[in-house]
Amino acid sequence: MNYSDDAFVTMLLSMALSPNKEEYARPYSTQELKRLEERVHKSSLFHIGKLMNVDISGLMFKLDISEEEAYRIFTLLNRSVQLSYTVENYLRQGIEVVTCHNEEYPQRLKRRMEDAAPPVFYRCGNAELLSRPMLAIVGISGVKTSPEVRDSIETLVRNGTRLGYTILTGGELGVSRVAMNFALEYGGTLVEVLGGDMAAHVHEDGIAELLAVGRAAVISVEHPEALFTVSHAIARNKLLFSLAEAAFVFNTDGKRGELDAIRNRYCDWIYAWIGYANNQPLIARGAIAAGNIPEMDFDALSRHWKNSQSEQMSLFDML
Length: 319
Known about the structure:
42% helix; 9 strands; 14 helices; alpha/beta
């Protein structure tokens, strides 16, 4: 992948080069980087890539910032050698870094998340899948998948694949693993959005098979060697819902950002399965109650998912 000056500087400013974020200077958060870009655009530099050759005094003068902030920027920008080695190491593992300045960056993330869209993420696998319509199937690990849930997931994967959707999951054990196995069985494609452990996960059974034949992509906003955490899962779910045309939540612990996704309209069609008690707050806040999923008219629903940006319809209206 080729990186413009804007893309390379974005990586320097926002990427953690170690899984434990042990840095001489703290990388910029999404919101911090957005504010910095606004300062740059209003300055004589205009493009963020122009920061590369500016010293501390120049940063202070051109951006009207404190010496402390200028030193932070200067320190981060002087990680170019380390960053180049890091990116090359990722490439050897089949992992690419995608920035908001690359053509491969999904436009629906920018459109739906706006200023909250991550400036950088990591990707392994078939990049073209990220531009396809996606049907998200969501659940947390540690909850047993009942026969009814498995039948519902099979229905979603089978019909979603038939209608041209890529199946989108969070890559966890449980609901996501069941969805992956049905994607394998029905010849579907899969995108996984991870909350950690990316470097190890892409070699696991099932997903490695799909990646090898171009039927999968795996993405993460976390360092590829960072461990899974709940805070990472919350960031993960923002991307997951923003990429989906429709999302089905089978179970949640209420701590994974689903309510934020509903409130911020990251996805207009979020369904919550009525058979799991912890899904009731989602329904109360605006998620669509999902009952007998195997009896759904997916052809009719798909037309609404693709054509409507705001109106939501109860599943029971389609039975």
